[in-house]
Amino acid sequence: MTRPSVFPLPPNRTIGIVGGGQLGRMAALAAARLGYRCHILTPEPESPAGQVSAGVTLGDYEDPAALAEFASAVDVITFEFENVSAAGLDLLAALKPVRPAPSVLRTSQDRIAEKSFLNGAGAPTAPWRRVASRADLDRAAAALGLPAVLKTTRLGYDGKGQSLVTGPQALDEAFASLAPKPLVLEGFVDFACEISVIAARGEDGRAVAFDVVENRHRHHILDLTLAPAPITEETAEEARAIALRVAEALDLVGLIAVEMFVTRDGGVLVNEIAPRPHNSGHWTIDACPVSQFELFVRAVAGLPLPLPTRHSDAVMKNLVGPEETALWPEILAAPGLIPHLYGKQEARPGRKMGHVTRLFPRGALPGPFGIAAALGPLAARADRLEETVEIPLVPVG
Ligand SMILES: Nc1ncnc2c1ncn2[C@@H]1O[C@H](COP(=O)(O)OP(=O)(O)O)[C@@H](O)[C@H]1O
Ligand SMILES: [Mg+2]
Question: Which CATH number fits domain 127-187: 3.40.50.1220, 3.30.1490.20, 3.40.50.740, 3.30.530.20?
Answer without folding.
Answer: 3.30.1490.20
